[in-house]
Known about the structure:
The complex is a heterodimer. Chain A is of the alpha+beta class. Helix content of chain A is 14%, strand content 33%. In chain A, strands 1, 2, 3, 4, 5, 6, 7, 8 and 9 form a 9-stranded antiparallel β-sheet that branches. In chain A, a hairpin with a 4-residue loop joins strand 7 (130-133) and strand 8 (138-144). The radius of gyration of chain A is 15 Å and the shape is globular. The model of chain A is unreliable at 1-35 and 45-52 (pLDDT under 50). Chain B has 2 domains: 37-220, Cathepsin D, subunit A, domain 1; 253-396. Chain B is 8% helix and 38% strand. Chain B has helices at 2-16, 150-153, 162-165, 299-302, 343-348; strands at 37-43, 53-61, 69-78, 82-87, 99-100, 103-111, 114-127, 130-140, 169-173, 195-198, 203-205, 227-232, 243-249, 264-266, 273-277, 280-287, 294-297, 320-327, 333-340, 359-360, 362-368, 376-381, 386-387, 390-391, 394-396. In chain B, strands 19-18-15-16-21-17-20 form a 7-stranded mixed β-sheet.
Amino acid sequence: MSGRSGGWNGWGGWDRLAWCISITTLVLLVLPVRTTASLGGDVSSVQTDQVRVKAALMRVTSSDRFTVHEMRAATGTTVREYVSSSGRVFGVAWQGPTLPDLRQVLGTYFDAYVQAAEAAQKKRLGRGPIRIEQSTFVVEQSGHPRAFVGRAYVPQFIPAGISIETIQ
Amino acid sequence: MPLKLLSLAILGTLVLNPECGTTPPSTNIVAAPAQNVQPITVNAGPANNYANGLFTSVTICVPGSTSNCQTIDGVLVDTGSSGLRVLSSVLTLTLPQQVANGNPVVECNQFLDGFTWGPVQVADVAMAGERASAIPIQVIGSSGFPAIPDSCSSSGPSENTLDALGANGVLGVGLFLQDCGPACAVSGESNPGLYYTCSASSCQPTVESLGQQLQNPVSRFTTDHNGIIIELPTVSPLGAPSLGGSLVFGIGTQANNALGSAALFTVDVQGNFTTVYQGQSYGGSFLDTGSNGIYFLDSRTTGLALCSDAADFYCPATPQAMSATHRGANGTTGNVAFGVANADTLLANLSLSVFSLLAGPNPGSFDWGLPFFFGRNVFTAIESQSTPMGFGPYWAY
């Protein structure tokens, strides 16, 4: 598994879990990928769209419960998508000097995220890490310009027994 | 409520009294106003809704003019970014517009909590006795430019008004020379496309050379241009309505900005260092006057309860004394004592805006926001600039 250089602290959460990951597939691909499935979307239907998401698929790692698709854009921003065994993207995580295209990554949750973030601005107490928690999704962002880290997940889609700390 | 105030007072005594075992913040000297010293204030800001907001006034002039100027107050002092941005709604001057290939240059700048969209224009920027001549700045929210491109609005919510931004502008005086840096100055797919040229109908991402990007204004002063010192005194742990301090320009260039016994912490290419907490190392840590609290880890790791009404802050039943260690990329370490009090209690008093014990979660890392700066003189050395203790970028305190 790739280590993380900043933001979320490595893969410590894995050690605390009782279950064991069996890596059944490890594929290293370097393919230009124009788009990818979004949070909550179905990975089996890759949509072509015109949004400028140009990323190389770096690796796909599978366990018996979920698959992680890791993509790195030429800008240096990395996105990981966590896909359940039924093909649904239950979590996404990103890090890099600039943000990924959140409209693409958050999919149908993007508009609700922006609305909730704007509401939070109006209650402005100041700036710090972002945490948007709605009944259907959670978005967390941290860092600063040149070093952004974030993740989003749909609680209802997280496979049984998988900790939120897996998504990073 | 009185019991909670008593607890805060006790914590304040614990934190400040070395005989109780916790290391108090240094007794720092805040420089008096001078040619290289700009007054700064922690208060609720121009929208009157900020907690731990650090603000100053910035004088902007049409390039080369000393009369065609405007002093804008309520500008957020931000060591987490580089470059000056001001709200179009506040700016009364008409500044030269930067153009590329005959079209105006407009920037989509990403902050953590949203983006600012607005043209790049050129101004002289002055504070105290220092002046940066003809530097690119961003004028946020100007009308007259095509609608915000999707590639910009996909960054999140906009911050193009006082309501959304919480300030009349942002003074980025951080570690870097430009806001974007080399990434925006090259062509090809590695360019994140933060800068655009806009025709009458549409905007396209453009290559923006380093010299054309927003500049860290301090780096363009004629003197005292290698960094800054944020100097804020200690403050009552119960909170305060406001707090005055100094933004000192230059490191080791005047009698009032010597490094003295400050320890020097270098950073990685992203401007981050490591925090060690209870034996665990957390990379991706950073100092940031633009963050309004000490944001770290999570409830389970720290043992601090989240506030029931706002999961953005910690609400321990009683104030807690904490400690951690900073470790620079150069291996320098330094212990840091800090405290966390119940955010609901602190923020309940609407007449206060300065809180040294305001903290919240930040999974996996440490965002050392404004409370870290109370009672310390913190040096920020700008990349590639020479200082008596070596080249920036680094933090020192």
